[in-house]
Every structure is written in C-alpha cells, then in structure tokens.
Amino acid sequence: MRETLIMDFQYNTSIEKVWSALTDSNKLAQWVMDNDFKPEVGHRFQFRTQPAERWNGIIDCEVLTLDAPNRLSYTWVSGGQNNTVTWTLQDLGNVKVNLYLEQSGITNEYVLENAKRGWAAMSGTLEKVLAE
Q1: How far apart are the first and last CA of the chain?
Q2: Integer Cα distance of 34 and 49 in angstroms
Q3: Which of 19, 41, 45, 48 could form a disulfide with 69 if both were Cys (CB 3.0 to 4.6 A apart)?
C-alpha cells in the first residue's frame, strides 16, 4: 500500500509571505519543527523535535524542487517511512493564497492519519505565523 495525503489550506495573505514561511528556517521552526533548512536544491537538512517512545524525533530531508514562490518539495524520511512532501502555492487574488500539500509514499494507515492530524494542527500554527 502506498498512499498520498492531499490537503488544501487557504490564507488571507500574500503568496510571498507564505513562501517565506515555507523557506525561511526560522519561520519554518515556528510552525513545523526546529530545522537546518536552506532553500537550495540538493540541500540535506533535518527537522528535529522531542523523541517519542518509538521515534528518535528526527526527520531527514533533501530539497528536491524549488520554484519560488510556487512550488517546494523535499524528501521526508523517518520511522521507516520514505515520503515526499510537496507544497504548491496558488495566488487566488485579493491577498488570498491556496497552499496545496501532497505527501506521497505513505505506507500505512496509522502514518496517514497521524500526518493528516499533524499537518492540520501545523496549518493553524502557520496561520498565526503569517499574521505576525
């Protein structure tokens, strides 16, 4: 089984602000996790958080696509999962942006449901970051 999680989020802000929240390491840390991200294709980085019972708290990533301010993708490798996360931004006009998330390569229902809950929670935090 290989599943793809697809989610859409809308924000009342500029596409540049959303792009910055996706590609600025400090802003990314405010709504996802601590990281050493750099907006460079081929850059290897990590998201880091507190370890859990069966997880070391580290997600290994590599930037695959960088098309400012429209598309960003990176690998997402952790806990036996090797996924690809792709963000696609669409300017809807009137200072409104659609942020489309696709996380592909998920191999079980438990990971799919956790990813769905996690990204939904983080999207709310992103909204607060964008309001700053």
Answers
A1: 40
A2: 7
A3: 19
Kindly report, residue by residue over 73-111, the tens digit of the pLDDT.
999 999 889 999 999 999 999 999 999 999 999 999 999
Q: Which domain holds residue 79?
A: 3-131
- What's the CA gap between 38 and 26, in Å, rounded? 10
Q: Which of 34, 32, 16 is nearest to 89 (CA)?
A: 16
Nearest in space to 48 (alpha carbons), one of 60, 39, 38, 40 = 60
CATH of residue 82's domain is 3.30.530.20
Task: Judge contact between 37 and 127, C-beta under 8 A.
Answer: no
Q: 103 Cβ partners below 8 Å, 6+ apart?
A: 4, 5, 76, 83, 84, 85, 86, 115, 119
Q: Quick: pLDDT tens for 46-67.
A: 999 999 888 899 999 999 999 9
Instruction: Specify the number of domains making up the chain.
Output: 1
